[in-house]
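Exercise: predict the fold of this chain.
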Amino acid sequence: MDSLIETLGAIQNGDDNDQGLSSADEKKLINIYAAFDQDDYDRETIRKAIQMAVLKAIRVDQIQANYQITPDTIANVIGYIMAGVFHDKKQLSILDPAMGTANLLTAIDHQLQSSLGIDITISGIENDDAMFELAADSVELQKIHAELFHEDAVQNVLAPVVDAVVSDLPIGYYPIDANAKGFSTHSETGHSYVHHLLIEFGMDHVKKGGFGFFLVPSQIFQTSEAKQLLKWMQGRVFLQGLLNLPKELFQNSAAQKAILILQNSGNGAKQVDPVMLGEFPSFKDQQAFAKFLTEIDDWEQKDLF
């Protein structure tokens, strides 16, 4: 992972910052960098190349689960839902409060620009040093203008207020109880769930009537800690949808994730009836998958607005 970060930096700076190489190896590497011209590749190709390199680094270094990249299949589904929600927008601002390497954020940015043809501004927050560096390099190599914050979102970052928040949330407990105390979703006893805190942070940075699209555990409302999350939601946000992703994508049912769709109150927003609930069919079953997307389209057009 460190080598990848160093290489991406060298590509942009046009020099070699490697240490500990023989002069012959250093010269060889400089020649490789010199032969690479990023202008030969479109931004989506560069994003996918970085994604593949990160995936290899995760596998080789045996890095923890929270470093895992959101697969493009899932990013495409979230982007599809967002395109339907924001189909009439002329401009759109998006924030990811736990952006990781920014693969989800930049994939959705590309997808929405391609499908809607609108001006999109993106912002992201990431606390981990390595992931932030990879995100910053990826955004720069893709020539995307973005506002990135190397911060812990739970520590009250001065992030922008946006039209939509989107995030593949880290799952687990937040270790610093004092930082969580300012959140309505904090646990009464012991550590708080970081994904609950980040949902609250995200929706606090969405405009009135704006949306949040979060990848969360499918059982998010069935845990003992869900009480505080549901209490916070009342009167503040509308639960508009919860769509389970196909079980085949996960090692077991406990690891299954869902797309949670929330909408801030205000600006004419209302609780949709019915709430969009369901489970995506297998991505391999193209006919069933296309039918489910059509049902989402119908729900967005007839019920959500």
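Check your answer against the key: The CA atoms of residues 61 and 119 lie 38 Å apart.
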